[in-house]
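note to self — DONT lose this again. spent like an hour looking for the file last time. sequence + predicted structure for the chain T wanted, 245 res
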Amino acid sequence: MRRRNGINALRRLAGLALALLLGHGGTALAATDAAPAANDMAQRVAACIACHGRVGATSNAGYFPRLSGKPAGYLFNQLRSFRDGRRFNADMTYMVQHLSDAYLMEMATYFAGLDLPYPPVSPASDATPAQLARGRQLALEGDAARRIPACVQCHGAALTGVQPAIPGLLGLPRLYVSSQLGAWLTRERHALAPDCMAEIGQRMSTADVNAVASWLAVQPMPADPRPVAALPAPLPMACGGMPGK
């Protein structure tokens, strides 16, 4: 019963968010309309905060990812993927299905521009030392035998993301990281072609997914948590979200 009530509450929030995103009084915002003022956008995306929070969840029991400070290109690509069917979440699809690219970019740019502190990360973990060691190996070294590049090769040495479209991996709930990696493993999540994360995810085992998610979830945020401007070397494989890289 508690789970059902929670789902119903999320659906009510999704309905409220759709009303706010499409415009006051339920009037749809056309792609040709002028971009909303910054304070108006803050009001329109307020419903997003109900699930994602202003700084994101840090508990291992949390699920919704932080939006604040992520690269605008990454957020824009995810919003488009929910709208266009590459990612699947009924509430997210319902909220963005009628929104134009221009409006989605306005939303992405708003959240990317928020400079909010990260809460302390709880070091508690029920992962075994062996699982954490495997997670650290995958994040920092990869697994050459299985053609799995290290997370740092794409997400930056500090794992805080890379402009314009690669997200950071720290400060995210373990459940969220493991579920997204698992969705690539099971071919339930897709990105713009070439879908590099789908290739990587399908080379990982369930044990790998749990290990790297557990290790990432307990890492402290660096002094500068912002995405870096560029990587020191080319990406190890082509990724559709980073054209020309």
